[in-house]
Design goal:
This protein is α/β, with parallel strands linked by helices. It has helices at residues 7-33, 38-41, 65-70, 72-81, 94-102, 118-128, 142-150, 164-171, 174-181, 192-200, 225-235, 251-262, 280-290, 318-322, 343-347, 362-371, 380-392, 394-409, 411-425; strands at residues 57-61, 86-90, 108-111, 132-136, 155-160, 186-189, 208-210, 240-246, 269-274, 294-296, 309-311, 327-330, 351-354, 374-376. Helix 7 links the parallel strand 4 and strand 5. Helix 12 crosses helix 17.
Length: 429
């Protein structure tokens, strides 16, 4: 049970109540633009669109696609251990909702979370009455957290990660930070640094444990075998490499590397997977500037012999592309973006290439890089040389693939340990 509310928390509650109508209109417009039904839009106001199941309900709250998908394997294992339990996942974006619902484990449902204001939070908790709440990463909504704890809902912050900016901000408000952190029974952090920061901000040291990065333990991405067979037929044995989850400012480096490689392999195909498919117009302009001929998945354009880059500008098909090729450059890393989950391509049997800016997955990449399952590059030349080596020296590629696969296998025990700790601290039986 949290201690007495601080003045800053009371001010937060008052201000968010005042701006609720304006926040709701903004969110409603975004949901309407994504063709979310009216009933599902009202979930943000705390009006559930599904009934609460009987019995034990364990609630997971995550912000984004990656965070939401990262808990699915944990829910599956928890469901095996607790066969009578039901599960609720809340996430805020239409993209996350669409992808989650394709992969929902048994006895699991998805809802949008309530606005962090009095009425929506009350309606949400009145309806769902969760037996435990598990917040993922840095998704801190003060009112939702405090009100849940006040109702006796045991809470955990899983995969906890705090940016330096967040630490600095909360350290200037120590009483309020301690007040909110007191709501949690357990913090499982991604690294020792976050554990130390949480304790420094006022979290009970007995409630803080070093965990692991859950995103490294997600289930393998799904593969559409029909699509995979069709693409293989189209490329007819051409050599292929993949640049996945690229961001603004990274495609230029990738395409420069590909241009270098084309001098040796004129029929080499680059499969380019932008992190945000709605950037397709920008990507098309970059390809034109680079003088490369491309076709786009969303436009159902074929991969003819003259196509040098195939842009996979769709959602939910990345697992299929990873099954196509064992050489994957993972974006979000050439710029200071934080990187993406290297275990997704590794689970598909690929060797991984990354830039240096993978700080969000530092603990995940460390054993991969050390073992040779992942190679770190700085420039277009580095990238082209790594791809060239793996295309020409088959034994080197096989060794890198084996090293990456071995790192994936080590995560099984870590996931079981996370589950044991959660069940014990949240009284889940």
């Amino acid at each position: 049970m949290p201690e007495r509310p601080t003045l800053l928390y009371r001010l937060y509650c008052g201000l968010t109540s005042l701006v609720e109508p304006f926040a709701w209109r903004t969110i409603q417009k975004k949901l309407q633009a994504a063709d979310v039904s009216v009933a599902r839009q009202r979930e943000r106001l705390g009006h559930a669109s599904l009934p609460r199941p009987d019995g034990q309900l364990i609630w997971f709250h995550a912000a984004s696609v990656g965070e939401s998908l990262s808990v699915l394997s944990l829910i599956k294992r928890m469901g095996d251990r607790l066969p009578d339990a039901h599960f609720l996942i809340t996430s805020g974006t239409p993209t996350s909702a669409a992808l989650i619902e394709k992969r929902l484990p048994t006895r699991t449902r998805h809802q949008y979370p309530p606005l962090d204001t009095g009425g929506p939070v009350k309606r949400f908790l009145d309806h769902w009455q969760p037996n435990a709440g598990i917040f993922v990463e840095s998704e801190i909504w003060p009112r939702l957290i405090v009100e849940s704890a006040r109702r006796g809902v045991p809470l955990a912050l899983l995969n906890a990660r705090l940016s330096e900016k967040s630490v600095k901000g909360w350290s200037q408000r120590p009483q309020t930070a301690r007040f909110i952190l007191d709501s949690f029974r357990l913090f499982l952090t991604q690294n020792d640094r976050t554990a130390g920061n949480l304790i420094g901000l006022g979290a009970n040291p007995d409630h803080v444990q070093r965990g692991t990065n859950l995103k490294a333990m997600s289930d393998p991405l799904p593969v559409d075998q029909d699509v995979l067979d069709g693409i293989r037929k189209e490329i007819s044995g051409r050599p292929v490499w993949i640049a996945s989850s690229t961001h603004d400012g990274e495609e230029e480096t990738v395409l420069a590397a590909h241009t270098r490689l084309l001098k040796r392999w004129p029929n080499l195909l680059l499969l380019l997977i932008p992190r945000h498919p709605d950037r397709r117009d920008d990507v098309a302009a970059i390809l034109k500037e680079a003088g490369l001929k491309a076709s786009f998945r969303m436009a159902a354009e074929p991969i003819t012999e003259t196509i040098q880059v195939y842009v996979a500008d769709t959602l939910g098909e990345t697992g299929t592309w990873y099954a196509l090729c064992p050489i994957v450059f993972l974006g979000g890393s050439l710029k200071e973006i934080g990187g993406h989950n290297p275990f997704e391509p590794a689970q598909a049997g690929a060797a991984v290439i990354t830039g240096p800016g993978y700080f969000n997955f530092a603990e995940t990449f460390a054993p991969l890089v050390k073992s040779g399952g992942a190679i770190k590059v700085q420039s277009a030349q580095d990238l082209s040389e790594t791809v060239e080596r793996w295309l020409t020296v088959e034994s080197a590629l096989r060794e890198a693939q084996a090293a990456a696969s071995a790192c994936v296998k080590t995560q099984e025990d870590a996931l079981d340990a996370v589950l044991d700790t959660l069940c014990k601290r949240l009284d889940l039986t």
